[in-house]
């Protein structure tokens, strides 16, 4: 009788600690954000972790690759509105039909120099699939959106001009946005963006392309 009772207790303890481990391993806790965090908060948290945990910066850590792959996976899920809804409802099991996530990633230098070019600019709204429809099409506001690629030299040359424009546009006249097509190619294809930088005024969808 005693061994059976002991086994039951050990089994319950194992479930308890597994639950704790699962909670600590959640995508939100991995990125250090709350469950209701917005896209910009998630992006900033990921960039900070990318610079700290990247294998390029931790060559002596044998677990650096696997840790960073999981951090990258967390970001890929939480930045996507549909994947995030599935994860919130069903956990990682709800994502199994979508594959195991990316096993490759960019260099540390990429995250330092190219990731989130406009994330620290309060006047420029970084847009993604998760909020583009609501912010741009449903808000009723005029938007001037810069579709760029982090790998495009012209896009980097445009960045200081775009920042200055955002500062000079009077509040209430138009909102200034940016979409990184290297990170969100599906959104850019849906807007028929084929070259960078592409500047589009919404809701008129008036184009200005490739003259910078």
UniProtKB/TrEMBL annotation:
Major localization listed first in the record, in broad terms: endoplasmic reticulum
Domain Thioredoxin per the UniProt entry, residue ranges: 115-212
Function: Plays an important role in regulating the size of autophagosomes during the formation process.
Organism for this UniProt entry: Meloidogyne javanica (Root-knot nematode worm)
Name the UniProt record assigns to this protein: DnaJ homolog subfamily C member 16
Keyword Signal: yes
Topology class, membrane: Single-pass type IV membrane protein
Highest taxon in the source lineage: Eukaryota
Residues making up the signal peptide according to the UniProt record: 1-22
